[in-house]
Task: structure prediction
Amino acid sequence: MPAPTVLEAHLADLAVALREYRRAADRLAAWGDALAATLTSGGRLLVAGNGGSAAEAQHLTAELVGKLRHDRQPLSAIALHAETSALTAIGNDYGFDEVFARQVRAHGRPDDILLLLSTSGSSGNLLAAARAGREAGLRCWAMTGPTPNPLADACHDALAVAAPDSQIVQELHLVSVHVLCEHVDRALPLPLGAVTGGQPQPVAATRAAPRTGVEVVLDDGAGPGVGSRGGRRDRTAGGAR
Result:
């Protein structure tokens, strides 16, 4: 039997990781509800990562400030590594471990959300950012590789991809970014249409149909707002999200 191709070997490893990764469904739904509640009440999301994880983090902020599928109000999300002048000045003056932490202390406010991405979960600058975030009263989340790892322990909650290959971890972090944004959009109180006079206008258009196996439950409008306070819930058929 011929040896598997590079692609076949990679996809086989990805398939193995996907079995465990499916358990992230509940966490991503809860994060989406919480993030939507924070961003629509005037809070902001701060994100950071190194290397490929920086690209994943910046992808997330682009989806939130821009849009995922449908037009809506822009949501406040800042990729800390994208501010190159601040990044290099802080690194030069205070050391590389402070490049994110100092920005967290500058931009973060109590009840904002800080999301840190790392395949290893051991990057010193992300650990310093997590400590700064907790001290400033932010809610700290992490997307990491396998646990246990220091970053997951330093944050309030973590989504850990149980794969030994950092490439697989990053690929599933990107899936997480898209699913998280999908949940944010579904939790928003109102879909928005074209921008008129500088202000997004409500429209009657419906969202794309939910994916197979997902039941979307809406309240009758009498319940409370977004997130853990009630309202919209996403559930997969069969009782396992």
User: Anything to note?
Assistant: Residues 192-241 have pLDDT under 50 and may be disordered. The radius of gyration is 19 Å.
